[in-house]
Amino acid sequence: MRDSTSEAATRRLILILAICGFASSFAIRSLDPLIGVVARDLQSDPHTIALLATALAIPYAFIQPILGPVGDALGKERIMKVCLAILAATLAASALTPDSVTLFVLRMVSGAAAGGVIPMVLATIGDRVEMARRQIAISRFLLAVIAGQLSGATLSGFLAESIGWRGVFALSSALALIGFAAALFGFAKTAAPTTAFDVSVALARYRAIIALPRARALFSFVFIEGVVIFGIFPFVAPLLEARGAGGPSEAGIIIAGFAAGGILYSALVAVLLRTLGLAWMLVAAGAFGAFGFAGIAVAGHWSVDAIAMVALGLSFYMLHNSFQTQVTEVEPQARGSAVALHAFSFFCGQAIGPVSLGFGFAVIGQAPTLLFGALAILALGIVAAWILAPAQLRAR
Q: For the chain: N or C, fewer Cβ within 10 A?
């Protein structure tokens, strides 16, 4: 394993990767508060435009089985550079789109390009940072991802009133260009890979990874995360408007609460690991998630939604950072492929989430659907703790 022996080198690595991650996460989250605005401007139904989240998530997910082994063979940093360049181009084109159909197509290409950034970053950290320090290192990188989500969700809601949603896309494109420049110059001296891409080798590695029970459990956990937690995001703005509780600005603040929960986690992660350990941190994460969903279910004022979203964000990052760290070690010789399957599972869940939540709202109503989500995330935390660290649970 390529490991950084220098703290300075590690900090520089995380800085470069953080710029790339910030640009990618900003692009992913910046559209969420703008669903109603985009729908009105393009004369489309808000529920249809809400599926732009699915349009991004599906290609993000399905590009993973390709990019993972390609990154292992050709170099993860190279994949990041190419994907950031494509992301910048498609976001710029999205700012000029004339209709919703074109926007859907561009969003799908953007999703595929974004799929080559954060998963490759995580695999790179796995290559260069030893396991004992890896969860902390990944949590530091997650600060940049969270900042991107926070900025994307909050700024896009406010900026829509001055530069419009097209201006938000243009800003996202500029940030992706900055990420591309950081990767281009930051990894300029990266050594060329010593192996060529081989489909048979890639397939053999996938078979080996899927055969591991721990890997299958981790892939299942993040799939459930994606369905349950990320299904709510595209509906925040429409739900607020439907009950007359606010518009894009309030929706942006609420979604930013999720990122604020992630920042809180990043500040507390070392303490949580030291005092609770992995298992009890996962159980606590499930409890916070249940509280968050229940809060959204009973919310009347948008500020209650915002507080509930902070709890949901704390829950998600406690769970997800733990799963990410574990998956970087399930198959060290094919780390890019393992992380790619992990991201594939996660974004398959994200793609299904909005559809599932919309179906639940239509069939059983908003509150019952959200309360079901509360039970699901609580169960996820408990089951994950039992499978990943059962000895810690028995010790308490």
A: C
Count of C-beta atoms within a 10 Å radius of residue 185: 10
Burial of 274 (0-12, 13-18, 19+ CB in 10 A): exposed
- pTM of the predicted structure, to 2 decimals: 0.74
Query: Which residues are CB-contacts of 282 (< 8 A; sequence separation ≥ 6)?
Result: 318, 319, 322, 381, 382, 384, 385, 388, 389
Amino acid 230 reads F
Residues 6+ apart with CB under 8 A from 281: 272, 273, 318, 322
Assigned token pair, 255: 């979604």
For the chain, the domains span 9-189+201-395
**SS3 state at 328:** coil
CB atoms within 10 A of CB 357: 24
CB distance 357 to 231 below 8 Å:
yes
**Contact between residue 87 and residue 56 where contact means Cβ atoms under 8 Å apart:** no
Superfamily of domain 9-189+201-395: MFS general substrate transporter like domains (1.20.1250.20)
Residue 277 region, left (φ>0) first, then alpha (ψ -120 to 50), else beta? left
Q: pLDDT class for 88, splitting at 50, 70, 90?
A: very high
How far is residue 58 from each of residues 36, 81, 116, 352, 353, measured CA to CA in Å? 22, 21, 13, 9, 11
- Cα–Cα distance, 84 to 116 (Å, whole number): 8
Measured in whole angstroms, the distance separating CA 157 from the mean position of its chain's CA atoms is 19
DSSP state of 233: G
Instruction: Give the Cα separation of 262 and 265 in Å (integer).
Output: 5
Contact 222, 349 (CB under 8 A): yes
Tokens 């994907």 locate to 83
| CA proximity to 297, closest of 372, 246, 211 | 372
